[in-house]
Amino acid sequence: MANYTVADIQALRERTGAGMLDVKKALDEADGDLDKAVDILRVKGLKGVTKREGRSASEGLVITSIEGADGAQVGTLIELNSETDFVAKNEKFITLAEQVLAAVVAAGAANAEEALAAPLDGKTVKDVIDENAGVLGEKIVLRRVARVEAPVVTEYLHRTNKDLPAQVGVLVGTDAKAGEVARDIAMHIAAYSPTFLVREDVPEETVANERRVAEETAKGEGKPEAALPKIVEGRLTGFFKENVLVEQAFAKDPKTTVGKVVENAGGEVVSFARFRVGA
Q1: Which bin fits 266, alpha (ψ -120 to 50), beta or left (φ > 0)?
Q2: What pLDDT is recorded for position 52?
Q3: What is the Cα–Cα distance from 126 to 165, expressed in whole angstroms?
Q4: Where is the Translation elongation factor EFTs/EF1B dimerisation domain (predicted)?
Q5: Hey, which residues does 72 pair with through a beta bridge?
Q6: Rounded to whole angstroms, how far apart are CA atoms 29 and 25?
Q7: How many CA atoms are closer than 13 Å to the CA of 95, on its beta-carbon side?
Q8: Same domain, yes or no, for 114 and 42?
Q9: Is 94:200 a contact under the CB 8 Å cutoff?
Q10: Are residues 29 and 158 in the same domain?
Q11: Residues 41, 12: Cα–Cα separation, whole Å
Q12: Interatomic CA distance for residues 71 and 205, integer angstroms
């Protein structure tokens, strides 16, 4: 007869987040010793890391941190992915995200590569993620890391499903005056997903491609040759209004732009970052 109880099974599941069958097998092998069963799950899980490499991890969460005082703040945003929303809302996964974020902040990492190499509990972030992936039985990926530095950094996290952690995360860096409207701008960014802060940030090759597509489309529509330059520039302006933050119609008042809102506050947006899980 197995040397463990239903309570032991539940305790091990809560401790590791592993599935019922895996937990029972580990307890059988460990003869009911919970600590030994945890080690067994970890070892077996790590052996399965390679097998999980080809699997898709498009669920998960975003989480943020803002450090420093007004006048010199640093915001960090990370996206940690899992394969299923079941794991995404698991307490062990959420705790892992918090630990990873703390390690990323402490290391000052600005991208995923630096973050994975950051130290965490005597190991690297990558090692800890792999260990947790083994226990949870799913591929777990630190997909993206963003770092925003500004006099004032404002965060906004949005849940697309009330039963899951935040799926959309935004950091906005501004000066002090624009800090008064930064929360509204962060919410706007979450909803309208701009790609660039200002028109000058759009790569030249992107502009050239948009201009080419606009011209070819206009020709295909049979527009007069003489009218093409004006039509192309008009459509290019439309591209900027859709993708450049300061040129977008403001979510709370579409009659004005985000740029005008910031200008009326007498301030400036320095930078921003936006992640949506899986996108």
Answers
A1: left
A2: 47
A3: 22
A4: 75-278
A5: 69
A6: 6
A7: 11
A8: no
A9: no
A10: no
A11: 10
A12: 36
Amino acid, single-letter form, for residue 106: A
Q: At what angle do helices 125-136 and 91-107 cross, to 10 degrees?
A: 170
On the CB side of 99, CA atoms within 13 Å amount to: 19
Residues 19 and 135 in one domain: no
- Residue numbers of the domain that contains 80: 59-199+244-276
- Which one, of 58, 66, 26, 43, lies nearest residue 154 by Cα? 66
Give me the average pLDDT of each 10-residue run along the chain (279 residues).
78 71 83 83 56 66 92 95 92 96 97 97 94 85 96 96 95 96 97 96 94 89 88 94 97 96 96 95
Q: 171 and 39 in one domain?
A: no
Q: Which residues contact 255 (CB under 8 A, 6 or more apart)?
A: 249
- Joined together, the tokens standing for residue 61 give 């969460």
pTM for the model stands at 0.79
Give the C-alpha separation, 50 to 269, whole Å: 43
Tell me what pLDDT residue 209 has.
Answer: 92
Rg (alpha carbons) of the chain, rounded to whole number: 24
* Single-letter amino acid code for the residue at 114: E
